[in-house]
Amino acid sequence: MLLRSTFKTPIGSLSLISREHILLAAGFTSHEELTPGLSRVDQETSYKKSHELPIITDLLNDYFDGDLRALDGISVDQPGENFSQLAWKGMRKVLPGKTISYADLAKKAGSPDAVRAAGSACARNLIAVVVPCHRIVKTGGALGNYAYGLKYKEWLLRHEGAL
Which residue in 15, 58, 84, 153 could disulfide with 121, CB within 3.0 to 4.6 Å? Predict the structure, then answer.
């Protein structure tokens, strides 16, 4: 059984989907919009609404209260090809308060020429904030895109001290 919860942040509601203590999806959108990105098995699994998700909610609270490394304690799982998996792992290694370029992310994922694929991995990231695609910017420092809108990306980077 999956759990679904809505977490109130200073910039809006974050929809969360988990399997026990493993976060499967997080986004500034509805649960219904996140569900198609889940694995086929998870899409077909029943769910229940929960006021909070054990461990995950506490760590998100800590993050938004200023403990920027709290997200490191959240286990995640999302479907994706090998390159995307490597890119998402690379994103999680970018420390709060820091940013890297899409080109740097491509290098971290083992394919320096795959800059577009790095951007696509960011766009397909189903676990916003925790898998911090907001820390990936254009070469030269321009913010680039963010699936939920630049106001979210800017706020998160300011919260972390990167802007």
Answer: 84
